[in-house]
């Protein structure tokens, strides 16, 4: 699409989160360690941005010429040719001119313009059936990297704020990626994100759930979309139909019903119901403020592993304690259910140094990973135990497979927290593995409470990958086998008198609410922004 022709073009994908959004593309690449900054510039700022680019081009050209000279003296031949070719790309007036035109016309920063032009050249080379096409492609990629480094040395205009390697300013963006992994979503600037468009990922993938939680649209399953769209391109997306329009007509943008915008931007607030606590699923400590704003009855699932993913490292006991304390303080009297770190499967990160596994969802994951990496459990258990000296702290054990595993982890926690005064941990099991559900009576006899993780339960019960766009139609919980398993849990809950909540996405499905209530489950937990919608649906279903 970066041939810079601005004719509208449509793509059809899978609608995974509803709503409509229109904005500029922000391309996230999984291989990018330090994402290139993208932001808009005003008309008045555009000339200075072009000058910044010219200085960077001159600097990068000098740099590569000097390297070429050195290489000529030592290695010569093909090695020298690589740098001379890069120099020729950097020095080409046509490219500089094209980049400046993009800065002026699209009002974007120099890095965005560099990427648009270089990406296009790279793609054109890739399409050529010539022997040296590969070398030429990598020449453009190398020139782009060098130019972006030179631009970084030139600095940025006033008012541009660097946030975790990305720059934030100006208009909000639509994130485009091949797949939004858990660690990519953890480092997104969600306040400036209007929607997600991805090539891969199912309805229960973490990015789709995040989008629904934020109340923004998401569309998945558009093959190669991350290679087709370029930074800064204007798109209109409809998360209800799955349609993406690139360079839409102004009339199309205007035709978007204002109700859709309102739904995305300001979720409605419905006060608590009498008989059904509706809590929130959160990923980060700062999300707690939104839960209070939405009048949530508590935090029913705090996915603590996202704190690590966002920090891009393992957090120590003190760092965890501070984040957890913040959440409990914001939530005041309302309960907070902390889930122990649920790493592995689709939530992994390089800093964990996990072994390569052929089938990670069935490998070192959740409780099994905590057993294998006790140092992770120890620091978290101590942070939570210290917090519990102030108030009871609910702890949920992820992907438990049976009673023995639950008790083993509980004992490990008891050992790690020995010596901390006044520990009041309340231990709960997550029903996600079918084996644990079938063991519900024994598990609930020893646990204090439980919560149903319907996303993983569906994945493991129906042998269907929750994040795979090819099998989205099979990822469907409202089926007899699923309800039979829930009934086993409900019977065990009744027999033992232990409360069981639902924190998976099933709770956000209005058509399933009445049936969940008939099972006698104690609470529902959903994305903060959909608390109001769930309460409204519950009230319509006659739940007071
Ligand atoms: C679930 O599996 O339903 C759940 C709540 O946990 P997560 O989505 O974080 O795996
Ligand atoms: Mg889960």
Rg calc: 26 Å
CATH-level-2 architecture of the largest domain = Alpha-Beta Barrel
Provide the CATH superfamily of the largest domain: Phosphoenolpyruvate-binding domains
Question: How would a textbook summarize the main sheet?
Answer: 8 strands, mixed
Strand order of the largest sheet: 1-10-9-3-6-7-8-2
Amount of beta strand: 15-25%
Please, how many domains? 3
Name of the level-1 CATH class of the largest domain = Alpha Beta
| Tally of strands | 18
End-to-end distance, in Å?
52 Å
Distinct ligands = phosphoenolpyruvate, magnesium ion
State the helicity in percent bands: 40-55%
At CATH level 3, the topology of the largest domain is TIM Barrel
Global shape: globular
Number of helices: 22
Mean pLDDT equals: 88
What structural class do you assign from the helix and strand content? Answer: alpha/beta
Low-confidence spans: pLDDT under 50, at least 5 residues? 163-170
Describe the structure.
It contains 22 helices and 18 strands. The chain folds into 3 domains: 122 residues, Glucose Oxidase, domain 1, CATH 3.50.30; 108 residues, PtsI, HPr-binding domain (Enzyme I, Chain A, domain 2); 263 residues, Phosphoenolpyruvate-binding domains (TIM Barrel, Alpha-Beta Barrel). β9 and β10 form a beta hairpin. α1 crosses α5. An 8-stranded mixed β-sheet has the order 1-10-9-3-6-7-8-2. The termini are far apart. About 1% of the residues have low confidence. It has 544 residues and is an alpha/beta fold.
């Amino acid at each position: 699409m970066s041939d810079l022709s601005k004719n509208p073009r449509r793509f059809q994908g899978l609608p995974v989160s509803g709503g409509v959004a229109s904005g500029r593309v922000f391309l996230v690449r999984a291989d990018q360690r330090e994402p290139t900054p993208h932001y808009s510039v005003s008309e008045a700022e555009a000339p200075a941005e072009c000058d910044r680019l010219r200085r960077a081009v001159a600097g990068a050209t000098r740099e590569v010429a000097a390297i070429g000279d050195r290489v000529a003296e030592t290695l010569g031949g093909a090695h020298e040719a690589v740098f001379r070719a890069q120099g020729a790309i950097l020095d080409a007036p046509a490219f500089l001119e094209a980049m400046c035109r993009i800065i002026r016309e699209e009002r974007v920063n120099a890095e965005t313009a560099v990427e648009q032009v270089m990406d296009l050249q790279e793609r054109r080379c890739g399409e050529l059936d010539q022997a040296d096409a590969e070398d030429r492609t990598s020449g453009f990629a190398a020139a782009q990297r060098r130019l972006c480094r030179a631009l970084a040395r030139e600095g940025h205009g006033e008012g541009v704020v660097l946030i975790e390697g990305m720059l934030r300013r100006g208009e909000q963006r639509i994130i485009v990626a091949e797949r939004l992994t858990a660690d990519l979503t953890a480092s997104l600037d969600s306040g400036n994100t209007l929607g997600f468009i991805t090539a891969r990922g199912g309805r229960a993938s973490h990015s789709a759930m995040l989008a629904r939680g934020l109340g923004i649209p998401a569309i998945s399953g558009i093959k190669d979309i991350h290679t087709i769209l370029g930074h800064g391109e204007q798109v209109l997306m409809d998360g209800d139909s799955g349609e993406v329009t690139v360079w839409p007509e102004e009339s199309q943008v205007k035709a978007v019903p204002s109700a859709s915008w309102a739904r995305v931007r300001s979720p409605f607030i419905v006060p608590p119901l009498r008989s059904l606590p509706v809590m929130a699923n959160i990923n980060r400590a700062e999300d707690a403020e939104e839960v209070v704003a939405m009048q949530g009855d508590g935090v029913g699932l705090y996915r603590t592993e996202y704190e690590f993913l966002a920090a891009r490292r393992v957090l120590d006991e003190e760092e965890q304690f501070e984040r957890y304390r913040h959440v409990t303080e914001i939530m005041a009297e309302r309960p907070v259910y902390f889930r122990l770190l649920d790493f592995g499967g689709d939530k992994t990160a390089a800093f964990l140094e996990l072994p390569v596994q052929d089938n990670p969802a069935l490998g070192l994951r959740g409780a099994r990973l905590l057993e294998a990496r006790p140092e992770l459990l120890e620091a978290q258990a101590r942070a939570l135990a210290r917090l519990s000296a102030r108030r009871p702290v609910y702890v949920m054990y992820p992907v438990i497979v049976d009673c023995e595993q639950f008790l083993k982890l509980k004992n490990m926690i008891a050992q790690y927290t020995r010596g901390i005064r006044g520990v009041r941990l309340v231990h709960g099991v997550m029903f996600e593995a079918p084996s644990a559900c079938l063991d519900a009576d024994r598990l609930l006899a020893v646990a204090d409470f439980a919560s149903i993780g319907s996303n993983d339960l569906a994945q493991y019960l129906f042998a269907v990958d929750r994040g795979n766009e090819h099998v989205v139609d099979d990822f469907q919980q409202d089926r007899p086998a699923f309800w039979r398993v829930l009934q086993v849990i409900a019977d065990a809950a009744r027999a033992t008198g232990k409360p069981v909540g639902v924190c998976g996405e099933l709770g956000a499905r209005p058509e399933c609410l009445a049936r969940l209530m008939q099972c006698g489950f104690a609470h529902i937990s959903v994305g903060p922004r959909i608390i109001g919608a769930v309460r409204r649906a519950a009230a319509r279903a006659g739940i007071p």
